[in-house]
């Protein structure tokens, strides 16, 4: 593990302002030897313009200059730049500006010009330290702002692959690196047990290719990161564990960089948030998996009910050769009519099921009445008229058919109120039941029955039109013949 070391490179820019060329030359040598960038200006007015145009970290300024004094220069600069660090050089003790002025102009230090500049070097080093501290504070502030902006994004629900890509992008921009990858443990994702991997830059490869790239020593370091739950620093990169206080390590992020980001703590904070958001997506995937399972179970149960009912229906059809196939055709016509009214899928499904089961109640009617070819007497007819209620009762036993119970119960009601079993009128009859009624009547007329032969299409049409508005809903009749054409 390496310690982050304070970088001392030429990214510190120092401007020196003095009208004595000898002083500029000496300071040029000293500053460059200290490893900083040097800029010398001998005109105080020009110095003001240079600071306005370019960013400097530190200004070393002579006090006694022409045409304006050093404190005047500072006064001008402070009008537009509060950040630059300023050290004032004085020729003689008694020529220094008063302490009050030094303080009010935010001059960070002053010293006398001396032959060996030791005091000035100490002041420069201390100023540079302050500049670095200021930069670190600013980086932290910017980094925290970035985290505040990016974290809500990763908590928005999305696919795990999108999330990993987003997290990697954020971390790479925090650490200013170009090659990185993220790898998540074996978890059950969408029913599959697999490791998730996302790489950017040189790691933008398939998982298989990526595994080939890994050296044993690197794998060991990844393992160490996970067991220690700590950042591990390598020669060319950093391995961050993805974990939060409440969950175990989910995986790691590797950033290829030979510079340790100053804001390591921010990266750790972000990694904790990232791990939590990954865990959220994982939990969500488990919940939807459970939902899928429930859906499957529900569908299986539904199928079993349908099978059971199918047996009942076949019993009806077996009882009566004349009605065989009738229920399927009623369902077919009813759905056609429903579609022409632009009904939603749920309503169409109800029409189909109700069409299939509308006469299920007939299994409760005695065979000698059901199959009688002679004219039925009054009590026998009253018995037949019970089939909608008997059917409704059969279907009521199964909760999943509760929506079609009214359709079965009212399929023999008439608009004019002269239908059975309740004598409902007009809008009192559910709309879908009015559709079943037309489909049922049409198919009954166009099929052979034991007591009569089928009518031809034109005759059936005439009969239905003749009863439109009395027996049948006129809108349904109109739509039906619209599609029948
Ligand atoms: Fe019926």
Automatic annotation (TrEMBL):
Pfam families xref list: DUF3369, HD_5, Response_reg
Chain positions found as 4-aspartylphosphate: 62
Keywords from the named record: Phosphoprotein
Domain of life: Bacteria
SMART domains cross-referenced by the UniProt entry: HDc, REC
The protein, known as: Stage 0 sporulation protein A homolog
Domain HD positions: 323-445
């Amino acid at each position: 593990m390496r310690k982050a070391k304070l970088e001392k490179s030429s990214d510190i820019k120092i401007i020196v302002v003095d009208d004595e060329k000898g002083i500029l030359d000496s300071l040029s040598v000293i500053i460059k030897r200290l490893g900083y960038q040097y800029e010398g200006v001998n005109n105080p007015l020009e110095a003001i313009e240079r600071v306005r145009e370019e960013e400097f970290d530190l200004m070393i300024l002579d006090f006694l200059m022409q045409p304006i004094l050093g404190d005047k220069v500072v006064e001008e600069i402070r009008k537009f730049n509060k950040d630059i660090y300023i050290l004032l050089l004085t020729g003689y003790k008694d020529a220094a500006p008063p302490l009050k002025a030094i303080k009010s102009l935010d001059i960070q230090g002053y010293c006398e010009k001396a032959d060996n500049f030791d005091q000035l070097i100490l002041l420069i080093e201390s100023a540079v330290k302050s500049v670095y501290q200021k930069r670190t504070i600013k980086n932290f502030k910017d980094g925290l702002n970035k985290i505040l902006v990016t974290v809500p994004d990763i908590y928005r629900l999305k696919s795990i692959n999108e999330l990993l890509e987003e997290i990697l992008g954020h971390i790479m921009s925090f650490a200013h690196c170009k090659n990185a990858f993220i790898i998540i443990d074996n978890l059950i994702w969408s029913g599959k047990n697999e490791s998730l991997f996302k790489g950017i830059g040189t790691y933008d490869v398939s998982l298989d290719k990526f595994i080939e790239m890994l050296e044993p020593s690197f794998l060991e370091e990844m393992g160490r990161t996970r067991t220690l739950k700590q950042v591990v620093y390598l020669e060319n990169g950093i391995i961050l564990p993805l974990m939060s206080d409440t969950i175990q390590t989910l995986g790691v992020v590797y950033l290829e960089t030979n510079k340790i980001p100053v804001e390591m703590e921010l990266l750790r904070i972000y990694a904790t948030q990232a791990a939590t958001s990954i865990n959220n997506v994982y939990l969500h995937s488990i919940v939807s998996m459970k939902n899928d399972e429930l859906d499957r179970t529900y569908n299986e149960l539904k199928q079993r009910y349908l099978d059971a009912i199918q047996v009942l229906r076949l019993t009806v059809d077996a009882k009566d050769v004349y009605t065989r196939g009738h229920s399927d055709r009623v369902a077919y016509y009813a759905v056609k009519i429903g579609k022409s009214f632009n009904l939603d899928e749920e309503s169409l499904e109800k029409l189909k099921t109700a069409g299939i089961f509308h006469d299920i109640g007939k299994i409760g009617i005695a065979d000698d009445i059901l199959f009688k070819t002679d004219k039925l007497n009054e009590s026998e007819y009253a018995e037949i008229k019970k089939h909608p209620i008997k059917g409704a009762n059969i279907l009521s036993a199964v909760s999943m058919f509760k929506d079609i119970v009214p359709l079965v119960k009212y399929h023999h009601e008439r608009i004019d109120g002269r239908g059975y079993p309740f004598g409902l009128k007009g809008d009192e009859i559910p709309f879908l039941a009015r559709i079943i009624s037309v489909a049922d009547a049409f198919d009954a007329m166009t099929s052979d029955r034991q007591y009569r032969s089928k009518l031809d299409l034109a005759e059936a049409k005439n009969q239905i039109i003749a009863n439109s508005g009395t027996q049948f809903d006129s809108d349904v009749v109109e739509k039906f013949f619209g599609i029948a054409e």
